[in-house]
């Protein structure tokens, strides 16, 4: 029997099998080095190529990041509108290229966006700089030793946070207005075109046809000549990066297990700051560590009328019972006749961690396991750290609780999640857990049948993928192009890695 703190196989060590770098002061970010003691579920092992590539990328972030001469020169060039020709006669370090990732929408969206931007930065040898909006600077430790990933406050494109589909410098608009052209010269590079100092990549879920050309090889070649890219996405765009031919070989080498991409990127990038880690660690030790098995249930309802929905409650319990994740409860009449024998030393308890904006589901489930005996005699305790009632945008304590709860879910043995929710995607990926997904009901008075199903992988779903074949230049089903990129169970047009 596992007893807390847990330490399992050789690669479930403090550096997570080489995923993490040695170069940090431990006290500045305790979670980075303590997480492995809290994880019951063995993690996947990162490939040697991924480990080597991360160390190389850290070196790039230090060499070209904020407070370096290269960064200052690149920023000056951006300020001058790119008048100094970047490609010609530049000293070696002036070839530093940058990707700025805008942070907006909910925490789950922001985490998936930053992970996507990071992978794209690694694939294209760009320095990743993250916009610090929405507490991004307060929730996460710095991921790269000896430098910062936060975009400096004096970044010259002052209006970047308002960039939208209408921004003239968006890649889509520049294509449409022929400011940029693919296939200008032999090899399709941008030699004939006047390159702008930056391009804005509008990859938000509402993006248009021209913006989606980002996912084509010719366009990637063109973009590789632009020194500054600013990306806005609320999605996990990674599955579609796996369909870009020029990235495929490298992605195969980095991720021989394609269903563990976010698992590795997430555990590499997102470490709760000490304040958030306190919330996680205290809660875990007090309420969850004593149980033999931990079941995480993430209840995310997208309709206000479902704050107290008997249908959703029925969906949760029938999922947990049908899949034998939790013991069923006996009828009220049977309960008194079934006193559970107390066996010393036999820990048969299960703890349920409910996360939800509302308290109602937790109260019902907890009441049920108190008032009734279980058919198996197991004891079931039920816990919910907070109920914030609604999403408070940009409020510090709210964001910290959301991050702590996502993280606590990732420490469970088993997960039941709500389909469509990026909050659940992050938890399942960090935890290396293939969840049982509760499908979104067709309307608020029906219970889906079946209530839930086992997901095909722990990867997040990309909710807004392009459905376009770059080579044939026509629409296509991108869920049918390669065996490891498939449609999602919860969002039928979405794409996920398996
Ligand atoms: P999604 O909307 O489900 O895809 O997830 P996001 O994380 O992007 O946005 C939902 C936001 O609502 C979260 O970031 C939190 O701020 C809040 N939220 C949703 N569910 C919970 C929950 O179970 N616990 C807490 N503390 N906050 C939640």
Q: Explain this structure to me?
A:
The protein is an alpha/beta fold and 498 residues long. It has helices at residues 30-38, 48-64, 69-79, 107-123, 136-139, 171-176, 209-212, 217-223, 238-241, 245-254, 261-269, 274-288, 310-322, 360-371, 396-410, 422-431, and strands at 97-101, 126-130, 198-202, 228-232, 293-299, 350-356, 380-383, 414-418, 436-438, 452-454, 468-469, 474-475, 485-487, 495-497. The strands form four sheets. Strands 7-6-5-8-9-10 form a six-stranded mixed sheet, with helices on both faces. Strands 2-1-4-3 form a four-stranded parallel sheet. A two-stranded antiparallel sheet has the order 11-12. α4 packs across α16. Guanosine-5'-diphosphate is lined by residues 105-109, 300, 355-357, 386, 388, 391, 398, 401-402, 405, 421-423. Its EC number is 2.4.1.-. This is Fucosyltransferase. May be involved in cell wall biosynthesis.
Number of strands: 14
How would you describe the oligomerization state of the chains in this entry?
Answer: single chain
Run of helices and strands: HHHEHEHHEHHEHHHHEHEHEHEHEEEEEE
Rounded mean pLDDT is: 92
How many helices in DSSP terms? Answer: 16
Global shape: globular
Give the helix proportion (percent range): 25-40%
Distance between the termini: 31 Å
Q: For the largest beta sheet, what order do the strands appear in spatially? A: 7-6-5-8-9-10
How many structural domains are formed by the residues? 2
pLDDT < 50 runs, ≥5 residues:
184-193
Strand content: 5-15%
> Sheet with the most strands?
6 strands, mixed
Radius of gyration: 24 Å
Structural class: alpha/beta
Bound molecules: guanosine-5'-diphosphate
GO biological process, one term: cell wall organization
EC number: 2.4.1.-
Function: May be involved in cell wall biosynthesis.
GO molecular function, one term: galactoside 2-alpha-L-fucosyltransferase activity
């Amino acid at each position: 029997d596992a007893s807390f703190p847990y330490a399992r196989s050789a690669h479930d060590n403090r550096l997570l099998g080489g995923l993490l770098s040695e170069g940090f002061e431990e006290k500045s970010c305790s979670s980075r080095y303590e997480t492995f003691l809290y994880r019951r579920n063995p993690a996947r092992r990162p490939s040697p190529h991924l480990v080597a590539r991360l160390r190389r990328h850290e070196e790039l972030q230090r060499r070209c990041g904020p407070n370096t001469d290269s960064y200052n020169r690149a920023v000056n060039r951006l300020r001058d509108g790119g008048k100094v020709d970047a490609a010609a006669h530049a000293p070696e370090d002036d070839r530093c290229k940058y990707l700025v990732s805008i942070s907006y929408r909910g925490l789950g969206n922001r985490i998936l966006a930053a992970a996507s931007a990071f992978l794209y930065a690694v694939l294209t040898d760009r320095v990743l700089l993250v916009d610090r909006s929405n507490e991004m600077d307060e929730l996460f430790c710095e991921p790269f030793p000896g430098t910062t990933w936060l975009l400096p406050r004096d970044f010259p494109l002052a209006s970047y946070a308002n960039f939208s589909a209408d921004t003239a410098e968006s890649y889509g608009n520049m294509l449409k207005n022929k400011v940029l052209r693919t296939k200008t010269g032999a090899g399709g590079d941008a030699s004939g075109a006047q390159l702008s100092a930056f391009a804005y990549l509008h990859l938000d879920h509402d993006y248009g046809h021209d913006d989606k050309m980002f996912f084509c090889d010719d366009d990637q070649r063109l973009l590789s000549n632009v020194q500054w890219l600013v990306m806005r996405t609320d999605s996990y765009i990674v599955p579609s990066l796996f369909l870009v031919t020029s990235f495929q070989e490298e992605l195969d080498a980095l991720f021989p297990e394609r269903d563990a991409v976010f698992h590795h990127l997430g555990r590499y990038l997102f470490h709760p700051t000490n304040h958030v880690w306190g919330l996680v660690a205290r809660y875990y030790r007090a309420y969850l560590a004593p149980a033999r098995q931990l079941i995480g249930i993430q209840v995310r309802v997208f309709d206000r009328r479902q704050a107290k929905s008997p249908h959703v409650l029925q969906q949760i319990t029938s999922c947990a019972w049908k899949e034998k994740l939790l013991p069923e409860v006996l009828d009220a009449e049977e309960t008194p006749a079934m006193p559970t024998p107390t066996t010393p030393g036999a820990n048969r308890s299960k703890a349920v961690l409910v996360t939800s904006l509302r308290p109602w589901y937790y109260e019902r489930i907890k009441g049920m396991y108190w008032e009734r005996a279980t058919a198996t005699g197991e004891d079931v305790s039920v816990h919910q750290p907070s109920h914030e009632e609604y999403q408070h945008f940009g409020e510090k304590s709210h964001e910290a609780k959301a991050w702590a709860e996502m993280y606590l879910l990732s420490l469970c043995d088993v997960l039941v999640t709500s389909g469509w929710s990026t909050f659940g995607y992050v938890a399942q990926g960090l935890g290396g857990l293939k969840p049982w997904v509760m499908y979104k009901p067709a309307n608020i008075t029906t219970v889906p049948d079946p209530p839930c199903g086992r997901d095909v992988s722990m990867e997040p779903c990309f909710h807004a993928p392009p459905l376009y074949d770059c080579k044939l230049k026509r629409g296509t089903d991108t869920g049918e192009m390669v065996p490891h990129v498939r449609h999602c169970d919860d969002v039928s047009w979405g794409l996920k890695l398996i």
